[in-house]
Design a protein that fits this description.
Blueprint (H helix, E strand, L loop, with lengths): L2 H9 L9 H7 L6 E4 L2 E4 L5 H20 L3 E5 L3 E4 L5 E3 L3 E5 L10 E3 L4 E5 L5 H15 L3 E6 L4 E7 L5 E7 L3 E3 L7 E3 L11 H7 L5
Parallel strand pairs: 4-7, 8-9
Antiparallel strand pairs: 1-2, 3-6, 4-5, 6-8, 9-10, 10-11, 12-13
């Protein structure tokens, strides 16, 4: 291996020293899936085919709804979300939504503050983080809605932030319809998330009365 190739390979290894968030952003490029936790770099495993298909499906549907009603912007991983103090961590949600009133938080490579809605698609590797650390961090940072989608168990949980700043389970299960508070009553039949193949996006948009 040439010295140049070796240098590139070494550059993609997570640094062993603590980094500021700015240093982390300088190190992390768009092809690197990683999060910033207590100054350390935590690498994120590549998504499975099912995970990627589900993320793409939700981004297209939620993005179309958001665009139709001029609600804000939907972004998918890898895009960083820097959570403010006291959390002060850099996370990389599978999907995030930012209200039009908050798009000023969006920087070139990261969201400076909490998203209004975050979707995490659970995998065996991420279940502890998604249900544990991230749940607490998103709650403390003021992420108004948190969706946990578990395709392996065919279960979904939709949490909404209460007046006390704590998450309340608004809907949970494998079947039924969920209506979002943040996305202006966006509604979704949960069971369609477990279909293989997933429904055609055009048919979902038609059922929502959105031109495809």
């Amino acid at each position: 291996m040439s010295a140049d190739m070796s240098a590139v390979e070494d550059a993609r290894q997570p640094p062993t020293r603590c980094l500021t968030y700015e240093e982390f952003l300088d190190w992390c490029d768009e092809d690197t899936w990683a999060e910033w936790v207590d100054g350390a770099v935590q690498m994120v495993s590549p998504a499975s085919k099912r995970h990627a298909e589900l993320a793409t499906f939700l981004i297209r549907v939620l993005g179309s709804w958001t665009e139709a009603f001029d609600l804000g912007i939907v972004l998918g991983a890898p895009f960083q979300m820097h959570l403010p103090e006291p959390v002060n961590r850099g996370r990389e949600p599978d999907i995030l939504f930012v209200r039009a009133a908050h798009v000023g938080r969006i920087r070139t490579t990261y969201l400076d503050g909490p998203a209004d809605l975050v979707v995490e698609i659970i995998s065996p590797e991420s279940i502890g983080r998604d249900r544990g650390e991230k749940f607490v961090e998103y709650e403390q940072s003021g992420v108004d809605e948190y969706w946990l989608i578990d395709p392996e168990r065919e279960q979904a949980e939709f949490y909404q932030l209460g007046p006390d700043g704590k998450y309340r389970l608004a809907f949970g299960g494998g079947h039924g319809e969920y209506r979002s508070r943040v996305l202006s009553d966006f509604r979704m039949s949960v069971e369609q998330l477990w279909l293989d193949p997933l429904p055609k996006v055009a048919s979902v948009l038609k059922a929502l009365d959105i031109p495809s």
